[in-house]
Design goal:
Elements: H1 2-8, H2 22-26, H3 33-60, H4 62-66, H5 83-104, H6 106-124, H7 132-151, H8 160-184, H9 188-191, H10 200-224, H11 238-253, H12 261-267, H13 269-288
Helix pairs in contact: 3-5, 3-6, 3-7, 5-6, 6-7, 7-8, 8-10, 10-11, 11-13
Length: 290
C-alpha cells in the first residue's frame, strides 16, 4: 500500500518544483546559506503540496483513467490503492503543507494556498475548458518561481524570467495535449473531454506561437535584464535554449512524445545534456562573468 501511495504521489514529477530555485540562482544567491535553506524547505513543501494535488486529481479522474491505455495502471485506477486511503493521505498532506508553509513565510503560504486552490479547481472543473486548462497548468510554474522570490530577499531577479517561464510552460502544456491526441486518436475526447476543443492543426499553431515567443523573450532577457553582466555574455546561452526547444519539437512531431514531459526530459539524452549545458553556462555567466 505504501508503494502504491508513493507512486500516486508521483515523485518523478517533483522535478517541476525545481523552478523554485530560479530566483535563488538568477539573483546570484546560490552560495548564500541563509537564502539556500529556506528555498530547499520551500521545495520540499511544494513537493508535498503537488503530491496531495495528484492524489485528488487521480481520485477525480479514476473512471476516465481506467479507460486510458496508460493511465489505467495508476494505483487508484488499477485498484492497488484504496480511495479512502488516498483521501486521508491528501488531507494530511494539505494540512501539513499549509502549516509548515506558515512557519516558513506568510507570503509563501499564500502562494502555496493559491497553488492548491487553483489545482483543485483544475481537477474538478477547469481541466475541461480548452486553452484555459493549459493556462492553469502554466500558472503552476509561475507560482513556483514566485514562491522562490518571496523566500529570499530578491535584489536583481528580472521580471523577464516570469515571461520566459510562462511561455515555456505553455509550450510544454500544448505539446502534452498534442501527444495525448495522437496517442488516443479518434477516442481522445472519450478519455479527456477537453480534447474535444482541440485539433492537431490548432495545437500546432499554438505551439509555433509560444515556442517563437519563448525564444524571443529569452533573447531579450539576455540583452536587457539589469542584473546581468554588462558584457552580454548571457546571449551565448541562446543556442542552448533554441536547440532545447527544437529538440522538444522534434520529439513531439517525429516521435509523438511529450505526453509525460518530466519523464521525457529525464530520458532523452540530447535534451537532458542541453539543459545541463545551459544551466552550467548560465551559472558561469552569472557567477563568474564580468
Amino acid at each position: 500500500m505504501l508503494t502504491a501511495l508513493l507512486r500516486s504521489m508521483r515523485p518523478r514529477q517533483w522535478v517541476k518544483n525545481t523552478f523554485i530555485f530560479a530566483p535563488l540562482v538568477f539573483d546570484q544567491k546560490l552560495t548564500q546559506l541563509d537564502a539556500l535553506l529556506p528555498t530547499v524547505a520551500g521545495f520540499v513543501l511544494l513537493c508535498t503540496a503537488s503530491s496531495a494535488v495528484y492524489l485528488v486529481n487521480d481520485l477525480a479522474d479514476v473512471e476516465a483513467d481506467r479507460k486510458h491505455p496508460q493511465k489505467r495502471y495508476r494505483p487508484i485506477a488499477a485498484g492497488m490503492l484504496s480511495p479512502s486511503v488516498a483521501k486521508i493521505s491528501a488531507a494530511v498532506l494539505f494540512v501539513l503543507t499549509l502549516g509548515f508553509s506558515l512557519l516558513l513565510s506568510r507570503s509563501f503560504a499564500l502562494i502555496v494556498a493559491t497553488y492548491i486552490v487553483t489545482n483543485l479547481l483544475y481537477s474538478f472543473r477547469l481541466k475541461h475548458v480548452p486553452i484555459l486548462d493549459v493556462l492553469i497548468l502554466a500558472s503552476g510554474y509561475v507560482l513556483r518561481v514566485a514562491a522562490g522570490v518571496v523566500l529570499i530577499s530578491v535584489e536583481r531577479f528580472s521580471p523577464w524570467l516570469y515571461i520566459c517561464t510562462t511561455l515555456l510552460a505553455l509550450f510544454i502544456g500544448f505539446g502534452k495535449r498534442r501527444a495525448e491526441m495522437v496517442l488516443l486518436a479518434d477516442g481522445a475526447n472519450q478519455h479527456r473531454r477537453v480534447l474535444d476543443g482541440y485539433t492537431l492543426p490548432f495545437l500546432d499553431q499554438l505551439i509555433v506561437i509560444v515556442s517563437a515567443c519563448a525564444i524571443m523573450a529569452y533573447s531579450l532577457y539576455t540583452f536587457s535584464a539589469e542584473n546581468l553582466p554588462e558584457s552580454h555574455y548571457m546571449m551565448l546561452t541562446i543556442p542552448f535554449v533554441m536547440y532545447g526547444i527544437f529538440r522538444y519539437l522534434q520529439l513531439i512531431h517525429v516521435q509523438s512524445a511529450g505526453g509525460a514531459p518530466d519523464e521525457l526530459v529525464m530520458s532523452d539524452w540530447p535534451l537532458l545534456v542541453t539543459i545541463l549545458l545551459w544551466g552550467l553556462s548560465a551559472a558561469a555567466v552569472l557567477y563568474l562573468g564580468t
